[in-house]
Amino acid sequence: MTRLTGAVAAMLLVLSPATATLDRAPRFSERPEVPRLALGKKPTPDTTEIPPPPEAQLTTETEVLLDGQKCRYRDVPSTAAVVRMVVAPDGLTITRVEFRTRR
User: Fold this and answer.
1) Domain edges within the chain
2) Is the pLDDT reported for residue 102 higher than 90?
3) Separation between Cα atoms, residue 98 and residue 70, nearest integer Å
4) From the CA atom positions of the chain, what is the Rg in Å?
5) Which residues have a Cβ under 8 Å from the Cβ of 11 and sit 6 or more positions away?
6) Alpha helices, DSSP H, located in the chain
7) What is the CB-side half-sphere exposure of residue 78 using CA atoms within 13 A?
8) What is the Cα–Cα distance from 78 to 56, expressed in whole angstroms?
9) In this predicted model, what pLDDT tens digit does every residue of 47-91 receive, in sequence order?
10) Would the pTM count as exceeding 0.85?
């Protein structure tokens, strides 16, 4: 008899929350026709200009080496790769450029 009473009590405890959580899905007629996207204020255009970074430049005193030998910069082939580049302490002047050609 106690088992029967316990089983009935357990069933009542389990079924009452289960029926309380059932909910109908919202009907399509309750939803708006066109979904609206909530946007904030339009961002103001950035009017501050950022100056370009300074670029290093070759000078007449720049040493140009191709495969370990001195040469003029205009004589360096376009297929040559830069091996090493030395920049002056000011960061704007190139003092030495070493190129290597493909072998």
Assistant:
1) 57-100
2) no
3) 9
4) 39
5) none
6) 2-20
7) 0
8) 19
9) 566 566 678 888 889 999 999 999 999 999 989 999 998 888 888
10) no
